[in-house]
Automatic annotation (TrEMBL):
Main EC class the enzyme belongs to: lyase
UniProt protein name: 2-methylcitrate dehydratase
Organism phylogeny: Bacteria, Bacillati, Actinomycetota, Actinomycetes, Micrococcales
Gene3D superfamilies (alphabetical): 2-methylcitrate dehydratase PrpD
Keyword Lyase included in the entry's annotation: yes
Pfam families per record: MmgE_PrpD_C, MmgE_PrpD_N
EC id: 4.2.1.79
Length: 508
């Protein structure tokens, strides 16, 4: 890896394009390096993972609305929309939109956490949509798609390693626009000059505030990454037509770093693969076993264990207080340190409860499980004994857990915490967990078998058994797929199921 030193430059310096971060990203995207077998294996896993969570969200309101918007933009050859017949195609940017919302709605796919946080699987919908649309025209098959997805993951992860957005209340999808644009550039074999312009445009148009993940969290949480993917497709299209971007987008004196991030005196060190170096960042990412914010994954597993081993803890009459000692990020984003009263509100939205570790820990402790629908049901959140126990749960920042959260050493990096439960009789129960069971270093790491099982579980009752088998066959042959087979990288739900919900009317 090459470390690039990135800082603000005055306009009078006339910073050469080749010295700009957007150009370095473009060079990585344009490098036709081979994809390692283990990277290919993980790309396949994440395609299956995305399909699983998208399938489970087909009838949810944000997904229905996004799908209705997409189908108002039919296109030939076009790209598929998850749930619909493969012959029903829409313009690729709208497919990226609809499929991106479906993938993100349940907050249930892969994650990478470092200086910033991210869901790198958000790169898949826009890159796949472009691949399906241009497969025949540009002779794009599974191998080209795998290479492009490796780029998308690489760029997003490398930006997340080095540039914090949330510290300045900028939403994390500002790293996704550039990564998706870079991945599409790899897919289409574009020159660095074209990818450079697309990356700049994608970044410029995807910088938004973090209010989408604060307070009463709205349905926009699912739309934000889909918007970034849609914007990336459009940015590449414009760049291919010769249109340019604000330059330098990162380093300019009125650019992103100077006014949205650490300011004119900022300095970042961004690692990127050197020429001919494999893009392996996807191997550092991890998926979710549970449909909840990633920092809650390990704590759900700990709560499930306590449910089995200490059942008396599920009764609020026995519990005086529960304090979760954890990282700064967990405390301030999904913990009591956020100072969001909504995190303790039984009438809060699903999106809000998904970002409340006091609620999540309580329900997992009482139920001994976590379910992507049942655990968020209004009647579940409002149960009196749950509310009583929930109100005893707070979080506290622990410097040791903060250090581990930001560690560059995979063996030390952790997203868990230490739970101290004080009983009404004065005794204490103290337990801790570093990583989720499904984490590569966890008790039960996810491999192909677990990804397939997750898909089968979430598709059960939604897709026909034959469709489940068909998709898994196509997805697991991804590296060898012909251009005419890329359209099969979607799921088709029964027509009766899809017509059981009414799409809201809008402009389109």
């Amino acid at each position: 890896m090459i470390t690039h030193h990135v800082r603000v430059h005055p306009s009078s310096a006339n910073l050469p394009r080749t010295d700009q971060l957007a150009w370095k990203i473009a060079e990585v995207a344009a490098d036709p390096v081979a994809v390692a077998p283990e990277v290919t294996e993980m790309v396949v896993n994440r395609v299956i993972d995305n399909a699983a969570v998208a399938t489970a969200s087909l009838l949810r309101a944000p997904v229905v609305a996004a799908r209705a918007q997409a189908t108002a933009h039919p296109r030939t050859p076009g790209a598929t929309v998850v749930g619909l017949p493969t012959a029903e195609r829409v313009s690729p940017e709208w497919a990226a939109w609809a499929n991106g919302v479906a993938v993100r709605e349940l907050d249930y796919h892969d994650t990478f956490l470092a200086a910033e946080y991210s869901h790198p699987g958000d790169n898949i919908p826009p890159i796949l949509a472009v691949a399906q649309h241009l497969a025949a025209r540009r002779d794009l098959g599974g191998a080209e798609l795998v290479r492009a997805l490796a780029t998308g993951y690489e760029i997003q992860v490398d930006l997340v390693r080095s540039i914090s957005l949330h510290a300045h209340k900028i939403d994390h999808v500002a790293h996704l626009g550039p990564s998706a644009a870079a991945g599409i550039g790899t897919l289409l074999g574009l020159a660095p000059e074209v990818i450079f312009q697309a990356v700049g445009q994608a970044l410029h148009t995807t910088t938004a505030t973090r209010q989408s993940r604060k307070g009463e969290i709205s349905t926009w949480k699912a739309y934000a990454p889909a918007f970034a993917g849609k914007v990336a497709v459009e940015a590449v299209d414009r760049a291919m037509r010769g249109q340019t971007s604000p330059t330098p987008i990162y380093e300019g004196e009125d650019g992103v770093i100077a006014w949205m991030l650490d300011g004119p005196g900022a300095h970042y060190e961004v690692p990127l693969p050197g020429p001919g170096e494999e893009k392996r960042a996807i191997l550092d990412t991890y998926t979710k076993e549970h449909s909840a914010e990633y920092q809650s994954q390990a704590l759900i597993d700990l709560a499930r264990r306590l449910h089995r081993e200490r059942p008396e803890l599920t009764d609020p009459a026995n519990v005086a207080s529960v304090v979760i000692h954890t990282s700064h990020h967990t405390h301030h984003v999904i913990g009591s340190g956020a100072n969001d009263p909504q995190k303790y509100d039984p009438a809060a939205s699903r999106e809000t409860l998904d970002h409340s570790i006091p609620y999540i820990f309580t329900v997992a402790l009482q139920d001994g499980r976590w379910h992507h629908v049942d655990s968020y049901a209004p009647e579940r959140a409002a149960r009196p004994d749950t509310v009583a126990l929930w109100r005893t749960v707070t979080t506290a920042e622990d410097p040791g857990w903060t250090r581990r959260y930001h560690s560059a050493d995979p063996a030390e990096k952790a997203f868990g915490g230490r739970v101290e439960i004080t009983l009404t009789d004065g005794t204490q129960v103290v337990e801790e967990i570093a990583v989720a069971d499904a984490h590569p270093l966890g008790a039960r790491p996810f491999a192909r078998e677990q990804y397939v099982e997750k898909f089968r579980t979430l598709a059960d009752g939604v897709l026909e058994p034959a469709e489940i088998r068909r998709f898994l066959d196509v997805a697991q042959r991804l590296p060898e797929l012909r251009p005419d087979e890329l359209g099969g990288l979607t799921v088709v739900a029964p027509a009766a199921l899809m017509s059981s919900v009414t799409a809201p009317e809008g402009i389109f």
